[in-house]
């Protein structure tokens, strides 16, 4: 069996909270992040030597990322403007939500999304923690009261992720790859989980097209490692095609 068919549907959706902030804080340096996350900012050498994407594969993947992201942002620019306007009309606050995420080899970067939550989302998080439906490392609440009316629509069709194509053009993300974690999640990683940080994080991945509603963190990581160890351009293209189907079906949360 080839392509996506050989992968067992056993992943989990990355579900960290989408907290509103009026302005992004300065990204932490690698040294600062290493102090917060004892595992360090570099993927352990033993894991880096494990089977993964070759240098030629990385170059090919980067080329596809740049071309696809540039075309997407040009073609969908009017959609970007309409979404931004709708967000501003729907609730107070900026159109974009910018959060610090952990990328390849532990580098901190600013991840862009369309804002889907109310201004007081961060203050309301503590009260929702007892309702968490995921493993302790992840966070997810069905019918999160912090999500705005238009935010529900954006999340349902994954339109809130569109600004991340700008992250791809900046070289901080890839179109396909593991979802970018927040620092609080990485602090809970075991040694084997750090394999996720060997490659650029992605807008979509195996978890999104196969294991999106699985609450298990181990399954979530397992799909990411499976992707890294079995990467091919054909696999990326199949995941991208499957993602389009998922988006059009409106199964996002």
Report on this structure.
There is one protein chain. The protein has helices at 30-36, 45-48, 55-75, 77-90, 121-128, 149-156, 164-169, 183-186, 206-210, 217-229, 233-249, and strands at residues 96-102, 108-114, 174-176, 202-204. By secondary structure, it is mainly alpha-helical. Strands 1-2 form a two-stranded antiparallel sheet. Strand 3 (174-176), helix 8 and strand 4 form a beta-alpha-beta unit.
Uncertain parts:
6-49
Strand order of the largest sheet: 1-2
Q: What share of the residues lie within helices? A: 40-55%
Give a quick account of the main beta sheet: strands, pairing sense, barrel closure: 2 strands, antiparallel
- Indicate the radius of gyration in whole angstroms: 17 Å
How far apart are the termini? 31 Å
The secondary-structure class comes to mainly alpha
Mean pLDDT: 81
Number of helices: 11
Topology:
Blueprint: H1 30-36, H2 45-48, H3 55-75, H4 77-90, E1 96-102, E2 108-114, H5 121-128, H6 149-156, H7 164-169, E3 174-176, H8 183-186, E4 202-204, H9 206-210, H10 217-229, H11 233-249
Parallel strand pairs: 3-4
Antiparallel strand pairs: 1-2
Which terms summarize this structure?
4 strands, two-stranded parallel sheet, mainly alpha, two-stranded antiparallel sheet
């Amino acid at each position: 069996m080839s392509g996506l068919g050989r992968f067992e549907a056993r992943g989990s959706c990355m579900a960290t909270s989408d907290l509103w902030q009026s302005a992004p804080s300065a990204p932490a340096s690698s040294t600062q992040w290493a102090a917060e996350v004892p595992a360090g900012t570099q993927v352990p050498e033993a894991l880096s030597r494990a089977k993964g994407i070759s240098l030629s594969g990385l170059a090919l993947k980067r080329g596809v990322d740049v071309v696809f992201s540039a075309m997407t942002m040009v073609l969908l620019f009017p959609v970007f403007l309409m979404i931004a306007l709708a967000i501003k009309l729907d609730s107070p606050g900026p159109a974009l939500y910018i959060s610090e995420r952990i990328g390849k080899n532990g580098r901190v970067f600013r991840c862009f999304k369309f804002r889907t939550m109310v201004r007081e989302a961060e203050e309301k998080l503590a009260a929702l923690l007892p309702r968490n439906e995921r493993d302790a490392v992840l966070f997810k609440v069905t019918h999160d009261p912090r999500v705005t009316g238009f935010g529900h629509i954006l999340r349902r069709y994954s339109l809130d992720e569109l600004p991340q194509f700008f992250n791809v053009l900046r070289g901080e993300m890839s179109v396909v790859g593991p979802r970018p974690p927040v620092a609080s999640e990485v602090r809970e990683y075991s040694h084997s989980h750090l394999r996720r940080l060997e490659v650029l994080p992605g807008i979509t991945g195996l978890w999104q097209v196969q294991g999106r509603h699985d609450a298990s963190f181990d399954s979530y990581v397992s799909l990411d490692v499976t992707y890294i160890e079995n990467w091919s351009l054909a696999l990326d293209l199949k995941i991208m095609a499957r993602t389009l189907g998922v988006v059009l079906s409106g199964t996002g949360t």
